[in-house]
Design brief:
By secondary structure, the protein is an alpha/beta fold. It has ten helices and ten strands. Strand 3 and strand 4 form a beta hairpin.
């Protein structure tokens, strides 16, 4: 979870030196993150980065109303939608963000609208994009997911369908956290016309998803129970790893992979470029795409 960007940056610098032999970052690898925490508490930063929304509840007899129970197994994903802004009453495109509960392996896809014709093919592609078998599908109570079409698709694929419970705001908290830490951070809040959905989806598929899963370390909490029986979670630098590294560390992880997917092939993909190179490629591709969208949007206007 995106709880300490300062420690994450330290982890990235250490990985750059230790794994990719990039000695430009030797001095920065041991830099203190205390000042970064001070900056994150500044009023200007908080006003820009904190956004609160409320979810409207609905009563529909589709899906099981409970939290996922992965029991340490990958393949139980949480899914949520992110709207890319309105402009003059015109809706922008939508991002579909799916995150695995255990490994934090994440796939972001983009579609024009949340109607059946546009959303269902994106969900099918999204489920196929995970390297491991999908066992569970958890959503909030939005009608784009809680409907008979999606339920039939999941039943056909033998995927457990669960949905958030009332007065349990953290049931889909992992996906909502990633909405801000990944989708909003890299794709912003500004309006993007729906006609550019396929191009933004290509950016997510080719650059954003590989960077997030193979090159961006995440926190994985350690649960500690004290003498009074109270459980606390600790997020330590030594426990940070990429979603792919977390997947490999799980017991019997190879048995969870889809048919035809091997860790040898995934290892080659993860080691093809360094963390910084992946981030730079994402930055350049995003900049080029956004400049193109801005130019064509103004020309059309």
């Amino acid at each position: 979870m995106a709880r300490s960007p300062g420690l994450r940056r330290s982890a990235l610098l250490q990985r750059a030196v230790a794994l990719f032999d990039d000695h430009r970052y030797e001095r920065l690898a041991s830099i203190s993150v205390a000042h970064l925490y001070n900056l994150r508490r500044a009023r200007g930063y908080l006003e820009r980065r904190r956004h609160w929304t409320k979810t409207k509840g609905q009563t529909i007899a589709i899906g099981v109303r409970r939290a996922p129970a992965p029991q340490g197994r990958p393949g139980f994903i949480r899914i949520d939608s992110v709207h890319q802004g309105d402009e003059d009453g015109v809706k922008g495109l939508y991002h579909i963000n799916a995150v695995d509960c255990v490994t934090q392996f994440e796939v972001v896809a983009t579609c024009e609208r949340l109607s059946e014709a546009y959303l269902l093919p994106v969900i099918e592609t999204l489920l196929e994009s995970f390297p491991f078998k999908i066992l569970g599908f958890h959503a909030d109570n939005g009608s784009e997911y809680i409907n008979h079409v999606v339920a039939e698709l999941l039943e056909k694929l033998c995927i457990e369908f669960t949905k958030s419970r009332p007065r349990h705001s953290n049931n889909n908290g992992l996906a909502e956290t990633k909405n801000g830490a990944i989708v909003r951070k890299h794709l912003g809040y500004a309006h993007i016309p729906q006609r550019f959905a396929s191009e933004v989806n290509a950016l997510c598929r080719d650059f954003l998803n590989p960077y997030v899963n193979y090159h961006r370390p995440c926190f994985f909490a350690e649960s500690i129970t004290d003498a009074k029986g109270k459980t606390r979670k600790r997020y330590r630098l030594k426990d940070m790893m990429t979603p792919y590294e977390k997947l490999k560390s799980l017991p019997h992880a190879a048995n969870c992979l889809k048919s035809g997917v091997t860790f040898e092939a995934l290892d080659k993909r993860a080691a093809a470029i360094s963390d910084n190179q992946a981030a730079q490629q994402l930055h350049e591709a995003r900049k080029k795409l956004f400049q193109s969208i801005n130019r064509r949007s103004k020309h059309a206007a």
